């Protein structure tokens, strides 16, 4: 495994991120209720504004990139998974917990998996002007064992990240009113952040920017959110505002997040980016998820569960209005797929399969949120790019989806971007068309006969939308296309489960003689000239028969 792969897998360690966040949440639940409120130490007040932050990012881009003086590496390395799990932020130091807002702000400790210090600031309004005061790290903010290596860190060391927490009434739990037991958003590691969806589960991540993901000959870069600023929530508001400064060898940036907690979570993101040097693949509004296997080809004996994934497909709504669905793959080698577009209406990594029986896992993959990117304004020409990286376990985030502008990303360039993130249980803009719910692949040909070499049989299921409104006796027609090869044994039939509007298209794909390249397959259902379904896309790599 290359150094780049090792670094990516360390940063994107799905199990570590989830488990550490869960440990911190459970630690909060066990923390004793304080008798008196604590107060975090703060630095001196300094004027703050969005325009000032943008200017700071621009000025930073004109200077050589340098990392802040590092903390004792040997100490940080000793704060491993187990040690980190014992570091519990004390509830009496949580910000905004007793104020008029609905949320409490708490912090993650530094450690082996998250070694870079991040500076946190709280905003205070004075005469209609925001002033920022840095929150100064102190070991007293955390419950920690007497022998914890964290005690060797100096005052002011910084934090690894933060989260907003809430109380949830009506859950039936004894601690339903205790905000310490429930996260709804967290920023932790590089420029990564997560939110729960309508089903109250973490799953996939977003990040501020993606630099040179899976570019041959280049090492992927992970810029950091080095500073955060927090506005106090307004009275009765379900909304919080957070600002961030991004810094990396190739880019700097100013970010503003307006985050709304309702049934699910939405985030209005505004960013201004400044390039220090050329970037081969500049990934904007990037999403990162985990896909090991699904019903498409199953576990093939690697695991007992029927499916394991945080997301099962990429959904796209093009600028021309076409709705596309691309099931995810776990390829034998890293693949990059490009979907060219102009002024896209949206894209996202979706978890469509919500049936527990399809996972059989107590971590509840069926509750993981879907994440949809809604562009604000005209994004111009570019492409949604999907990166699929091989994995042999569920602990690695191996899927990246992002928007890549068509214009080359050059040193000195400035970019502004606005978009809304929807952390939901379903797409926020559901089409009238039927949607794909399952893709199944097997050997082509017919049972009881010699199976032809290299031929694949597909069963693609669609349901809802226009299919549910088909008159009795009317049968949809599968429409198939591919750049090479041909199709055989093509037909559509109702799925024999008694559910109205649930159909599947079956076909064999026969590759061209001597075909060695991957091929993209396209399928949709129609009745006459009327389109009934979204367009299904699938990238089929040559596989041994």
UniProtKB/TrEMBL annotation:
InterPro entries: Gal_mutarotase_sf_dom, GH-type_carb-bd, Glucan_biosyn_MdoG/MdoD, Glucan_biosyn_MdoG_C, Ig-like_fold, Ig_E-set, TAT_signal. Pathway: Glycan metabolism; osmoregulated periplasmic glucan (OPG) biosynthesis. Its main location: periplasm. It is found in: Periplasm. One of its GO terms (biological process) is beta-glucan biosynthetic process. It comes from the Bacteria. Keywords: Periplasm, Signal. GO terms for molecular function: carbohydrate binding; catalytic activity. Residues 48-539 form the Glucan biosynthesis periplasmic MdoG C-terminal domain. Residues 1-31 form the signal peptide. One of its GO terms (cellular component) is outer membrane-bounded periplasmic space. Belongs to the OpgD/OpgG family. This is Glucan biosynthesis protein D. It comes from Xenophilus arseniciresistens. The lineage of its organism: Bacteria, Pseudomonadati, Pseudomonadota, Betaproteobacteria, Burkholderiales.
């Amino acid at each position: 495994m290359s150094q780049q792969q090792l670094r990516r897998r360390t940063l994107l360690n799905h199990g570590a991120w989830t488990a550490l966040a869960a440990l911190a949440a459970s630690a909060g639940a066990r923390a004793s209720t304080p008798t008196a409120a604590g107060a975090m130490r703060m630095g001196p007040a300094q004027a703050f504004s969005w325009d000032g932050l943008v200017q700071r990012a621009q000025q930073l881009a004109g200077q050589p990139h340098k990392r802040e003086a590092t903390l004792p590496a040997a100490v940080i390395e000793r704060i491993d998974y187990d040690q980190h799990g014992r570091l519990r932020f004390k509830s009496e130091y949580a910000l905004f917990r007793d104020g008029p807002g609905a949320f409490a702000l708490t912090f993650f400790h530094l450690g082996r998996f998250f070694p870079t210090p991040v500076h946190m600031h709280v905003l205070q309004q004075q005469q209609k002007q925001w002033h920022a005061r840095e929150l100064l790290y102190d070991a007293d903010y955390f419950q920690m064992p007497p022998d914890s290596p964290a005690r060797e860190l100096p005052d002011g060391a910084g934090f690894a990240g933060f989260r907003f927490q809430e109380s949830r009434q009506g859950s039936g739990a004894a601690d339903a009113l205790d905000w310490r037991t429930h996260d709804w958003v967290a920023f932790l590691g590089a420029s990564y952040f997560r939110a729960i969806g309508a089903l109250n589960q973490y799953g996939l991540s977003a990040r501020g920017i993606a630099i040179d993901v899976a570019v041959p000959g280049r090492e992927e870069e992970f810029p950091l959110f080095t500073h955060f600023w927090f506005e106090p929530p307004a009275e009765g508001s379900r909304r919080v505002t957070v600002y961030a400064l991004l810094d990396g060898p190739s880019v700097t940036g100013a970010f503003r997040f307006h985050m709304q907690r309702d049934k699910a979570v939405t985030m209005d993101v505004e960013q201004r980016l400044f390039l220090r040097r050329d970037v081969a693949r500049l990934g904007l509004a990037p999403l990162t998820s985990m896909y090991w296997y699904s019903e498409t080809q199953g576990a093939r004996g690697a695991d007992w569960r029927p499916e394991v994934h945080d997301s099962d497909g990429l959904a796209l709504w093009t600028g021309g209005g076409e709705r596309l669905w691309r099931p995810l793959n776990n390829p034998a080698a890293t693949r990059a797929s490009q979907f060219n577009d102009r002024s896209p209406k949206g894209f996202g990594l979706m978890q469509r399969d919500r049936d527990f029986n399809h996972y059989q896992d107590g971590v509840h993959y069926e509750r993981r949120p879907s994440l949809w990117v809604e562009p604000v304004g005209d994004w111009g020409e570019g492409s949604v790019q999907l990166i699929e990286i091989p994995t042999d376990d569920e602990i690695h985030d191996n899927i990246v989806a992002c928007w890549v502008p068509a214009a080359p990303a050059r040193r000195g360039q400035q970019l502004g971007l606005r978009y809304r993130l929807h952390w939901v249980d379903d797409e926020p803009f559901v089409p009238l068309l039927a949607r794909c719910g399952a893709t199944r692949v097997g050997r082509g040909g017919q049972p009881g006969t010699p199976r032809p070499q290299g031929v694949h049989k597909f069963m693609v299921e669609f349901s809802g939308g226009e299919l549910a409104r088909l008159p009795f006796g009317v049968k949809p027609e599968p429409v198939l296309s591919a750049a090479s090869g041909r199709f055989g044994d093509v037909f559509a039939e109702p799925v024999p489960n008694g559910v109205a509007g649930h159909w599947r298209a079956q076909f064999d794909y026969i590759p061209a003689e001597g075909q060695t390249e991957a091929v993209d397959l396209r399928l949709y259902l129609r009745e006459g000239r009327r389109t009934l379904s979204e367009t299904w896309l699938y990238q089929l790599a040559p596989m041994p028969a």
